[in-house]
Write a structure and sequence with these properties.
Chain lengths: ~400, ~400
């Protein structure tokens, strides 16, 4: 009845071995749109930062040597010869015995090599300041290249840009950069029983397409661009045609395989006929999610997901999300939040299979949620999931487990 | 010289006590735009799910009682009286001694109360199936309301929508819902020395605005909508005017206070004059980030950040991000990823102050990154940060610390 599972792989094998060479093309991205984007090459600092010797405190620019030996009991006295204004080149020079008023962030005037904090001074009479503590050369100052040296790597390639990276790029005047295009992920649902979510009234036996909107959400979270490709009936010719269209306009094709075994084989047949090297595996040693197809059509990866929403979403999170990141040039996806919790009851498993168990958390306790893999509510009720690794035959109640948290 | 720190608070006091009542208004959001949005009220299931009794396996719909006693050695024989097609109401009834072919997900025909997996059957001659194992009533079936009961809470209010929630809403036919508007966060930079990031050549003493683009990124990550309000010079009248404009068009105003102490006081004065109840605190027991202003103008919260990028971004992450979530109706921000690592050297701190220390991770070791708070590179080089809580006077080398990871 079915040829499924003729080539089952473990999740580890799939993550390591199923690695289409495709990376999305390079495009120029404006700073305001760059959050989460992956630079294609190191961004090099065009100049030093801050670019000038700068005060880190409010106080007085001085020659450090003039302050040696100063104390509360025996302050040194300096002539205040001027004041530095923010954002301006100082128009005064600090000579021996002189001091210049400095705001935090101001340009260190010529002749000065330190800035004494205002807290350690007293301007007792106009034009004269008492310095109550000695300061070493360089004190209260950042030098022109203390933050960044010209020509060094400002932002590394391959790491999704963080909010603070945008700040660093802005500081360096880099307002656009080269980044991988967001991976376009075609999402195709199949099944005679599947109808669009907007269908108000269902005929008996019909179900609304839950998988496509949830996949689109996971794709967005992974920095991809969902390309909705609609619903295809259980008809091999229609599926082949829809796959061909999807392959032509995307960097990854995801097919949720309806519920029928026939559809899975039809997907495998279509993929095999549409490009090389074809099927990588047709069955994954994971629960839920065993009936998973991984394939490649002339460089474009194809993931055939189980028809059950729970299984489909578990597999896409574990196998599809890292692939979306890799297509965008990011080898290591950003970390997920997790927490250690105590398992409330035994979780059975089979050696050689990765089990993904949804859990609810309650004050440090992880309660496994069991239920048919057709039930989407198992996922919406879960706070996160735990993984039973391939070698294990289960987990015991009371064990400390790492729970990956949903955000 | 300055009135700063006249009302210093701890971070805990600020998070608990600084809680403007404002929540963003309710708006109707389409499913495709709903990821991360916060529902304003519980979404109630309009009907049961899956909505009909459904097979969870490929096999044969039967009366369970007909299979009692069946075994490999002594199978029971049933007449195959028809087949159920996906997405269709069955046109056959299962009477005693009868069976109907079932695909996974098909509608259970009238008269049947279980579905035997195809693996436990043999169709030895056309029209007759051998059943090799007994099945209990309900076996291989999910009932019409096993996933969701009509009238129950499908998705709770106040929790940002996850990808899987979108799937559940789609399954229930809920293609739009009521959610809080994204908080509009006005971002205002101040300082005579600050110029736009696109400024190609700087005059001596000028710096490009690094804080505003980084804040915009943090606001987006927190589900907010950054409203860039430009750069204001160190002039109280101009600042008051810009603040007034920002207050009128946003749910939260963030001012990065330039580097001058005077600006901080000017911000405080302007806020106090523009609305009630005015200033909550003017100084936060945190390092870096002490010169932080928290205030409220007729319901709209205002955060005055230090002028140093590192300090400003640390404070906004710890105090501003939870506030953005709260404005959108989410009391508990989504969890952040973290990891336990061993500290490579002593980290000094002062009791009563929360210290936020940037760290680099290397194989389970957390290396603290020290450096002036003016240095943005401390943040871009960091993999995450650790927190030294208020009661502690420091952390010892070798201690296990929790590092919150940047994504």
């Amino acid at each position: 009845m079915s040829r499924e599972f003729f080539a089952t792989r473990t999740v580890t094998e799939a993550l390591a071995g199923f690695s289409p060479a495709l990376r999305t093309p390079t495009q120029t991205v404006a700073l305001a749109e760059a959050l989460g984007r992956v630079p294609t090459c190191d961004v090099i600092a065009p100049g030093p930062l801050p670019g000038f010797a700068r005060s880190t405190v409010d106080g007085y620019a001085v020659r450090a040597a003039d302050t040696y030996g100063a104390s509360e009991g025996l302050p040194c006295y300096l002539d205040v010869v001027g004041a530095v204004r923010m954002g301006r080149q100082p128009d005064v020079t600090v000579t021996a015995g002189a001091a210049v008023e400095m705001p935090t962030g101001g340009v260190l005037p010529a002749g000065a090599d330190a800035v004494v904090m205002v807290e350690y001074t007293n301007e007792t009479m106009p034009g004269t300041v008492e310095v109550l503590r000695p300061i070493a050369p360089g004190g209260g100052v950042v030098h022109a290249d203390d933050d960044v040296t010209a020509g060094t790597v400002l932002i590394p390639a391959g790491r999704p840009l963080r909010a603070v990276d945008l700040g660093m790029l802005a500081a360096a005047g880099v307002t656009k950069l080269l980044a991988h295009a967001r991976p376009r992920v075609a999402i195709l649902s199949t099944g005679d029983e599947v109808v669009p979510p907007a269908t108000a009234t269902l005929r008996p036996g019909q179900v609304r397409d839950a998988i496509a909107p949830a996949l689109a959400g996971l794709v967005v979270e992974a920095g991809g661009w969902p390309v909705p490709c609609g619903i295809v009936p259980d008809d091999p010719a229609a599926l082949r045609c829809a796959l061909q269209l999807a392959l032509a306009q995307s960097d990854l094709v995801v097919v949720s395989a309806g519920s029928s075994v026939g559809t899975r084989d039809a997907t495998a047949d279509a993929v095999a006929s549409l490009g090389k090297p074809g099927i990588f595996c047709h069955g994954l040693a994971i629960k839920p999610g065993k009936p998973t197809l991984l394939a490649e059509c002339d460089g474009v990866p194809v993931i055939g997901l189980p028809g059950n929403p729970l299984s489909a979403l578990v597999v896409f999170r574990l196998v599809g999300v890292p692939l979306v990141w890799r297509l965008a040039g990011c080898a290591t996806p950003p970390p997920e939040p997790s927490v250690i919790a105590s398992l409330t009851r035994d979780v059975p498993s089979e050696a050689g299979r990765r089990d993904v168990v949804q859990v609810q958390l309650d004050g440090g306790q992880a309660e496994p949620l069991f239920g048919a893999s057709a039930l989407l509510s198992v996922l919406t009720r879960a706070d996160g999931y735990l993984v039973v690794a391939e070698p294990a035959t289960g987990l015991d109640a009371g064990a400390d487990v790492s729970v990956t948290l949903y955000r």
